[in-house]
Amino acid sequence: MLLFTTPYAELDLIRQPDQANDPLQAFDAADQYLLEQLHAQNLQASSRVLVLNDSFGALAASLAGQLTVVSSGDSHLARIALEKNLANNGKAFDSVPFVPASAQWQGPFDRVLVRVPKTLALLEEQLIRLQGHLAPDAQVMAGAMIKHLPRAAGDLMEKYIGPVQASLAQKKARLLTATVADRPVAKSPYPTRYLLDAPALELLNHANVFCREGLDIGTRAFLPHLPRNLGNARVADLGCGNGVLAISCALANPDAQFTLVDESYMAVQSAQENWQAALGQRPVTVLPADGLAGVEKQSLDVVLCNPPFHQQQVVGDFLAWRMFQQAREALVVGGALYIVGNRHLGYHSKLARLFRGVEQVAATPKFVILKARK
């Protein structure tokens, strides 16, 4: 067990979702670098610090009780990890307020610690939102492992906050520090919108939504093969993104009951707004969640899923496999999971280990659409 040791604390941290014998750590050298640099500034305990995109709570949990901390980000799993890591290290699980990316924080903040996200649109949106919430002598300190730090991150900080100073590399991590300066008030370019032909929809996408500029090719392959004639079936869109699968399926199944879940707050916000635009006041449940973890067993008839193959920068099928297991638990006997996946990922054989029957509904040169029956 490797502890996360910084001038603020020594913590035992876990990732989320947790898995046995996880070889990956819940922190890295960029987290340590940020906290070391912050500690060197000798801030007053009353100083207000905003932490952005803290994947598993390493930054916020370290600062809890040391400074006045608020954490914010787009990941519901990150929120769960923060609460678990606070509790596991003897602190109240709610001792650090968490503000979802779909909501607005309240400044002013003296320091902002940013883990540079994979999606630079999210960083841009966050930097724009910081305007008017920074103290006059505030600094915005962004950290990342060098291999995950694009030049554009510094450009965005310069554009929206002020002059940027890059640090020396330390353990393959680097920091960018922006000092607040006068900048014109910026209007956010998000959310973006695009049109879909079949069904005819305009889809809204907040900054961190997957494929926010246009429909991804996997979903495009999936749409013509969504189930029909479902009657009043209970349907879940697992990892709903902007809600396009559920909305398209709902239009073809006017009596079906839908639940949409995603771990991204901006995805949930987008899906809720898109559902209302397409289907008005038709009842629906849309919520941020750890997949179907909180759903009652054998309470669904159909699950739709375009599973992810990465978590932040880590590529793998762990999340997809977990979603398949959750779907099986939530489905009634005879219920079905419909998925789309790249051919090379071999989902057919994985699903066959969980479900009694797996059939190929359709295929393109790159994708397969599979139906797995419980």
List keywords for this structure.
374 residues, seven-stranded mixed beta sheet, 29% strand, alpha/beta, methyltransferase, SAM-dependent_MTases_sf, Rossmann fold, Ribosomal RNA large subunit methyltransferase G, 27% helix, 10 helices, 2 domains
Secondary-structure-derived class: alpha/beta
| pLDDT averaged over residues | 93
Shape field = globular
**Integer tally of domains:** 2
SS summary, helix count: 10
Total strands: 20
CATH class placement of the largest domain: Alpha Beta
Identify the CATH architecture of the largest domain. Answer: 3-Layer(aba) Sandwich
Proportion of residues in extended strands: 25-35%
Unreliable segments of 5+ consecutive residues: 310-315
Q: What's the N-to-C terminus distance?
A: 39 Å
CATH homologous superfamily descriptor of the largest domain: Vaccinia Virus protein VP39
Task: Give the helix/strand layout.
Blueprint: E1 4-5, E2 10-11, H1 29-39, E3 48-52, H2 58-63, E4 68-73, H3 76-88, E5 98-100, E6 109-115, H4 120-130, E7 134-145, H5 151-160, E8 164-166, E9 173-179, E10 192-196, E11 201-205, H6 217-222, E12 234-238, H7 244-252, E13 257-262, H8 265-279, E14 285-288, E15 300-305, E16 310-311, E17 314-315, H9 318-330, E18 331-342, H10 347-352, E19 357-363, E20 367-373
Parallel strand pairs: 3-4, 3-6, 4-5, 6-7, 12-13, 12-15, 13-14, 15-18
Antiparallel strand pairs: 1-2, 7-9, 8-9, 10-11, 16-17, 18-20, 19-20
Helix pairs in contact: 4-5, 7-8
